[in-house]
Amino acid sequence: MARIGILGGTFNPPHLGHLVCAQEALAQLGLERVVLMPVGAPPHKEAPDDPGGEHRYEMCRLATVHDEGFAVSRLELDREGRSYTVDTLRAIHETAPGDDLTFIVGGDMAHSLPTWREPETVLGLAGLAVAERVGARRAEIEERLADMAGGERVRFFDMPRIDLSSSDIRRRVRDGRPIRYLVPDEVARYIRAHRLYRAEVAA
To answer: What's the predicted TM-score (pTM) here?
Structure first.
């Protein structure tokens, strides 16, 4: 039985904050691998300046190619319709029923768990790993999820505070500012080679 972490997101583009989150989950939770899961069609928000799933998948692949602890899945990209976590976890269980799954989220996503589609089923299919430091925010999340079936499967891990977002990266590219050291070099080269996020594309 493999202990697999799943980190979902639009990854538009993937940046060092995503990789640090995956690394800390891998190290602190005793996982064997963390799989980046680029979303196909997000259920709750649009992806601004989205260059398309194939570009986002390739950037994730390039971002993780040198780390054996990471992998990238096409599951949500290849499935039609909106991407819901519960459907993704069911699909993974069908193909790898013996794996022990952990779904990795940030504090804001964890706090919103009761509003997800079939949230208690999600906790039945996978543990929930929350990137949130010790403090009032963690206590608030614990209290919010305590009465849910499967709430005991929620675990927390610490990660360095990195004030970086994909929207920051896209804005810097549009403004002609450097993104080196904010994304892996391979991702920066890919964005440049394919002229992603430039002003003329976003217009």
So the answer is: 0.91
